[in-house]
User: What shape does this take?
Amino acid sequence: MATVFSGVQPSGDFHLGNYLGAFRNWVAAQHDNDAYFCVVDLHALTLEIDPAELRRRTLESAVLLLAVGLDPEVVTLFVQSHVPEHTRLAWLLECTASYGELSRMTQFKEKSAGSESVRAGLFTYPVLMAADILLYQVDEVPVGDDQRQHLELTRDLAIRFNRRYGETFRVPRASIPAVGARVMDLQHPESKMSKSVDSPLGTVRILDEPAVIERKIKRAVTDPGTTVEHDRERKPGVSNLLELLSAATGVPPAEVAARYHAYGPLKQDVADAVVAMLSPVRQRAAELQSDLGEVERILAAGAARAHEVASATYARAAEAVGLLP
Ligand code: AQP
Assistant: This one.
């Protein structure tokens, strides 16, 4: 059995990109692997967030992960800050990473661009993410394409630490889906769909009502001309729609493209497929919302299980660098 880990920030409302790039692959991986999934609340502090909002969103994130189909009987579902070894290991890894390599992280450059005051935590965020993963001696990390560079850093840090202090961490690999790895904003198809970017019409939320999903998809920006082709460079808007339909139906994007000769019918089919895919999640989320006490119990049990593994790895790493037991 492989060990699988992934996390999600409670920094906003989850969207179709999170679902196709990550969540549904987590659900697919849960039965054949030893799987850990985490709401990474500490990462949300790297940008401005209201404390009450953070508390609410953390619990809602857990609700959503259960609603998409994670089974708490088989996966370990927990909140990052409930397992203190994440920040403890992050320090050991900060002393393994270099300033230069963190400066090259494109997400840091994007998220800090134009800000007068950038939090130090935003800069060291990828190191905390490496700690999240390495604590669980992970084989595979199912993520969207935007996390590829952070995963490379995680691997580099594990290899460097092992070389410097002796074999301590398993070196993980990224598992990135063939379709749905980079869902683009419906209004700005040159940018990824993102929860921290204000693009209400461009972002399909997992919990949007069916009529809202349909309206957003029908208003999606398409490209000059009328031909339906899968070509990300020349036709980013149409290609995004084709990829959505491909991800929802399992048919490759080029094959989907061959079935359409106009944008209207394509948009209608994308809307229908996305609504059909997300409706059961919305219904389940509503049921879970009515018993948040049960969700809190699931998270407490998950944190206890995660802590057992995390504390053993941390103790090994701390001893390896020379800290007294
Ligand atoms: N547009 C996307 N397409 C495919 N996958 C995506 N993911 C995020 N956006 C897309 C994947 O979702 C998982 C959880 O991501 P996250 O919320 O922890 O952070 P993120 O990658 O930074 O996602 P966002 O939506 O852009 O959030 P903000 O705006 O808060 O930073 C990850 O596996 C990610 O790859």
In short: The chain has a mean pLDDT of 96.
